């Protein structure tokens, strides 16, 4: 696919059978498709945010693509594809070090990069969290709050949170987060412990 053709994809995009047309329509909403500046030169967005207009506006030089659901190629911009599903079986932990290193190498030289998955909520958010832990030396909890300030919808799935907890232990020797089981709104759920006393994060857990 050529860069010039990509602008048409936000209307009638072709994705895999596991993604419905309604799923993609949701990710076109502004809270998903916006380019969220996470830290210097690093943006986070959804697949629907990867348009010619946005890539030019934010002067993107490298795309890190975690959207297994769709294949695309943009000739004029460097693009790395990672085929991780948003599921508990995906070993995203195996990518944290190398991708963080690549992002740092680019951003430290002033190159703008964007990380995206299908929604810009789980896989790509987990990758951004790993980067902040490794290179900004933030705890997982503080890294999450930093990203959530810029992009309120972020919520890596529980398996990715567990992998982030393991990564934090590797980096710092301990973790600022544990996963807990609790009852919320009459439902038994597993959440990061710091969510429990944060009304905004709890509200996001039950947002449809």
Helix proportion range: 25-40%
Structural domains: how many: 1
Report the top-level CATH class: Alpha Beta
Shape: globular
Give the CA-CA distance, first to last residue: 33 Å
Keywords: Hydrolase, Protein phosphatase
Domain Tyrosine-protein phosphatase: 34-173
InterPro entries: Dual-sp_phosphatase_cat-dom (IPR000340), Dual_spec_Phospatases (IPR052103), Prot-tyrosine_phosphatase-like (IPR029021), Tyr_Pase_AS (IPR016130), Tyr_Pase_dom (IPR000387), TYR_PHOSPHATASE_DUAL_dom (IPR020422)
Protein name: Dual specificity protein phosphatase 14-like protein
Give a topology summary.
Elements: H1 21-27, H2 30-33, E1 36-39, E2 42-45, H3 52-57, E3 60-65, E4 78-81, H4 93-107, E5 112-116, H5 123-135, H6 140-150, H7 158-172, E6 179-184, E7 187-192, H8 199-205
Parallel strand pairs: 2-5, 3-4, 3-5
Antiparallel strand pairs: 1-2, 6-7
């Amino acid at each position: 696919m050529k860069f010039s053709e990509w602008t048409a994809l936000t209307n009638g995009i072709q994705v895999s059978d596991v993604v419905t047309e309604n799923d993609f329509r949701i990710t076109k909403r502004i809270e998903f498709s916006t380019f969220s500046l996470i830290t210097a030169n690093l943006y986070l967005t959804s697949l629907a945010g990867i348009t010619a207009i946005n890539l030019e506006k934010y002067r993107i030089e490298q795309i890190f693509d975690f959207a297994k659901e769709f294949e695309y190629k943009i000739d004029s911009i460097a693009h790395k594809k990672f085929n991780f599903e948003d599921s508990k079986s995906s070993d995203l932990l195996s990518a944290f070090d190398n991708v963080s290193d690549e992002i740092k190498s680019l951003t430290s030289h002033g190159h703008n990069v964007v990380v995206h998955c299908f929604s810009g909520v789980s896989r790509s958010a987990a990758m951004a969290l790993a980067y902040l832990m490794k290179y900004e030396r933030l705890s997982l909890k503080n890294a999450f709050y930093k990203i959530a300030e810029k992009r309120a919808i972020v919520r890596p799935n529980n398996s990715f949170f567990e992998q982030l907890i393991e990564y934090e232990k590797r980096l710092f020797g301990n973790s600022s987060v544990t996963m807990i089981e609790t009852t919320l709104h009459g439902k038994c759920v597993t959440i990061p412990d710091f969510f429990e006393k944060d009304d905004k994060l709890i509200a996001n857990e039950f947002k449809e």
